[in-house]
């Protein structure tokens, strides 16, 4: 995050003695990029380094669909199985060294372990469901249409209040776009959203002893450890690094006389990829406008779109929950007839919600994606 926030009890000065009920409180510097990046200071009732037992290591290698060729794809998440756990059993569909794009379907219930992703920030998009996110920073309720951004290294868990489906994007340096911010970190006039749209955690402190399992994820696998004190024992924290939520329905799209490029809908930036959100908005209103995306060939980028809700005017045969992958170097755009049908939509309202991830490195396709792939999709601009 880019603005300062604090919650709970804090000492007057950092790195000084701080006691609560006669007990020394333990300070943690939680930060990224060494000691020169964003960070927060957290104050624990117990040493956060305390591990009772080192448990199993579980491999998490992703099998690539190497014979998939180099073409466009359409994936139907409706065909995916339910995940046993939103963290341990998310189904990775597309990936490269910078980005992992996965999907989760999970039933009502509380996660049985605590989570920490050591290598990647996480962006959860809630396609369906209601979830209580619990972390050492506090709790956030999220539901359909919400993004939940979790900085790498955060310890957290979930309570699923009902059946839920989540799109998960993992990467590094997930931030608010720099062009939205002034030199003080405030979101400027004309940006896609404002600071007050961002929902922060509400601190809840657990002073409990017991047996608590924590799983730490790296790019290669999962390490399980056991703790004897509850990891959410923080009595106060402050800083610039913390989880937050943002609803797509609070986004403020910029529209114009002529069709706007996807960069107008950039929601988050990251290392070698961006996340954009297409949200309900007015179609273009120039009397000669073509209010639909033009044919385009983003040679240096791969483009994934997750279709969440509404009408997807540029394509037939797209259902809610579908994912398309359009390859750089292959031209893509509206299907035949879509441009003509769009001409009477000038100035009317479009209700679509879709999430786009555009990567600067080629995405690999997993064997899980092979199971839900439509092999006829690359010909859908001809066979319609």
Automatic annotation (TrEMBL):
**What GO cellular component is one of the record's annotations?**
cytoplasm
Give one GO molecular function term.
Answer: homogentisate 1,2-dioxygenase activity
| Secretion signal span | none
Q: Which InterPro entries match?
A: HgmA_N, Homogentis_dOase
Where along the chain is Fe cation bound?
A: 296, 302, 332
Coiled coil ranges (UniProt) are: none
Q: What is this protein called?
A: Homogentisate 1,2-dioxygenase
């Amino acid at each position: 995050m880019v603005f300062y926030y604090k919650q709970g009890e804090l000492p007057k000065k950092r790195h000084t003695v701080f006691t609560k009920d006669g007990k020394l409180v333990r300070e943690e510097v939680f930060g990224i990029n060494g000691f020169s990046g964003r960070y927060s200071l957290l104050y624990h009732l117990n040493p956060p380094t305390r591990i009772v037992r080192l448990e199993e290591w579980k491999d998490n290698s992703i099998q690539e669909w190497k014979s998939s060729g180099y073409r466009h794809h359409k994936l139907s998440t409706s065909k995916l199985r339910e995940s046993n756990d939103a963290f341990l059993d998310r189904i990775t569909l597309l990936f490269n060294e910078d980005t992992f794009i996965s999907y989760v379907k999970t039933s009502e219930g509380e996660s049985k372990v605590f989570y920490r992703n050591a290598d990647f920030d996480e962006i959860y998009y809630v396609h369906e469901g209601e979830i209580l996110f619990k972390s050492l920073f506090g709790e956030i309720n999220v539901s359909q249409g919400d993004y939940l951004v979790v900085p790498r290294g955060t310890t957290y868990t979930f309570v699923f209040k009902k059946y839920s489906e989540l799109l998960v994007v993992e990467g590094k340096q997930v931030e608010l776009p720099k062009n939205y911010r002034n030199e003080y970190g405030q979101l400027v006039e004309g940006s896609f959203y404002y600071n007050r749209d961002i929902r922060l955690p509400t601190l809840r402190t657990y002073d409990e002893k017991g047996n608590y399992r924590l799983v730490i994820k790296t790019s290669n696998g999962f390490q399980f450890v056991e703790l004897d004190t509850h990891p959410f024992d923080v009595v106060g924290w402050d800083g610039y690094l913390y989880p937050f939520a943002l609803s797509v329905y609070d986004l403020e799209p910029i529209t114009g006389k002529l069709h706007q490029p996807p960069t107008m809908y950039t929601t988050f930036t990251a290392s070698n990829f961006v996340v954009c959100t297409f949200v309900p908005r007015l179609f273009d209103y120039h009397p000669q406008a073509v209010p639909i995306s033009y044919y385009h060939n983003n040679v240096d980028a791969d483009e994934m779109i997750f279709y969440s809700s509404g009408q997807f005017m540029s394509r037939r045969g797209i259902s809610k929950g579908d994912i398309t992958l359009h390859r750089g170097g292959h031209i893509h755009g509206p299907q035949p007839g879509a441009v003509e049908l769009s001409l009477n939509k000038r100035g009317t309202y479009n209700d679509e919600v879709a999430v786009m991830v555009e990567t600067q490195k080629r995405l690999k396709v997993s064997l899980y994606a092979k199971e839900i792939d439509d092999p006829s999709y690359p010909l859908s601009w001809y066979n319609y």
